[in-house]
Amino acid sequence: MSGRSVRSAATEQTQHERPLRFAVIGAGMAGILTGIRLREAGYDDFTIYEKAERLGGTWRENTYPGIACDVPSHLYSYSFAPNPDWSHRFSPGSEIQAYFERVARERGVVERIRFGDEVTRLELRDGGWQLETKSGRRDRADVVIAATGVLHHPNIPEIPGLEDFEGALFHSARWDHGVAIDSRRVGIIGTGSSAVQIVSAIADRVAKLVLFQRTAQWIMPQENPAYSEAERAEFRRRPELVNQLHQDMATLFAGFASGLVDANSPQMKAIEDACLANLENGVRDPVLREKLRPTYKAACKRLVMSPDFYQAIQKPCAEVVTEGIERVETGGVRTRDGRLHELDVLVLATGFRVDRFLRPIQVIGRDGVSLDTLWAQRPSAYLSISIPGIPNLFMLNGPNGPVGNFSLIEVAELQLGYILQLVEPLRRGACREISPSEEATQRFEALRTEAARNTIWGSGCRSWYLDDRGIPASWPWTFDRFREEMSKPKLEAYEQVG
Ligand code: NAP
What is the pTM assigned to this prediction? Predict the structure, then answer.
């Protein structure tokens, strides 16, 4: 820190407003939101970098049969862009993709996206970020907002022989629509939300369906009714009804979320009771029922919602295989009992690497420190948004954020509101760099990890919520507390430099 003038926020300086240039990374839900909010806030100098040729993030990449969002559509919408036309309570992925494309177009964001250009490097120089992309483009921004997503980098399991398989093989987030599945033998590895949705969607179409289950899942029997044309017409006529629906669902989810952070809460008990009744009443064959019975608390893993998974997996063509996988061979999957499960198609519904965030972008911050070094053990961030030594770079849905079945749209909206307040000192010319102090970050991290132990995610199961120590890497407090925290930055937790 030597040679740098650091001051606390309380010390106001002579100030000269300066125009700020922003670089936004990613044109998914959060990047589009950022474009819209920046314009509203009067920041017109920004570029959104998108590595793909199309916006949409998760909804562009996940196109597997049966894909839908497990947050109700009227809640999984921007607060400023209600949609009276959602077809279902949990609408399919293609509708969600179309929604983001429409909103981005209508709000003038599409023309601000630089498609097909992946940011590869960010380096802090003279209070701003030098940015490099794969195409060799260089840019400079005062502020970088990383909207790079959480469930983004497919987790490819290290199963021996994967490359030997002679059928079609792909990850659920890279569904190959050129491969026919009708009347074919399809294997699915994994039993998370993606696998469960795929099973329900394809069980009627395939000749044989083999679900390779390492861990059984609790299944919440959540119905997914369609909105009738009359209901949608009413929503169009009376927008206040859609807003009310959004509000009601937000309240419901906040209540559910408050239960998640206390493993012994009545909400968690009610969820487990509903899942247990679903299993007991929904699966006839006692042998299959025992295979599908989890041995941990409901919602310890991300709760899987499905009205029809048990029906699908009981079809004559379907089989749940709980023997561990030994290896993949040219003709199929060999399990540890020596059995070869012959397959034409093998789907890896094996989830995502959730410790990446904006990596593999190379980020070089203050005094040449790299993000890879700072995050060598595990990613962390102050309030999930920013990192000591990496000033003027803010993340949406970053490490340790609220991912516990909330609408990540609402999370990103709150975070962005916070970030826009945080850049105020930069805009006013009060400083050139702002980043959280090491001390505030360590204090936050200590409190967070302590609280995380009481959450349902820490109650004894393996899941993508856990970090390398087995501690839930999520917001461990209520959603109300998150909303309160995001309402106004405590600037004393930040260092302002220059
Ligand atoms: P996931 O929940 O992480 O599930 C991955 C599955 O793959 C688990 O069953 C895991 O088994 C299994 N697996 C991983 N490596 C394996 C290996 N080497 N051998 C055997 N099995 C292996 O992934 P996901 O289903 O893609 O879902 C990720 C998250 O995306 C969800 O939790 C949810 O937040 C979101 N999502 C939401 C929706 C929706 O809105 N409806 C749909 C899809 C995804 P273990 O359980 O034993 O680890």
Answer: 0.94
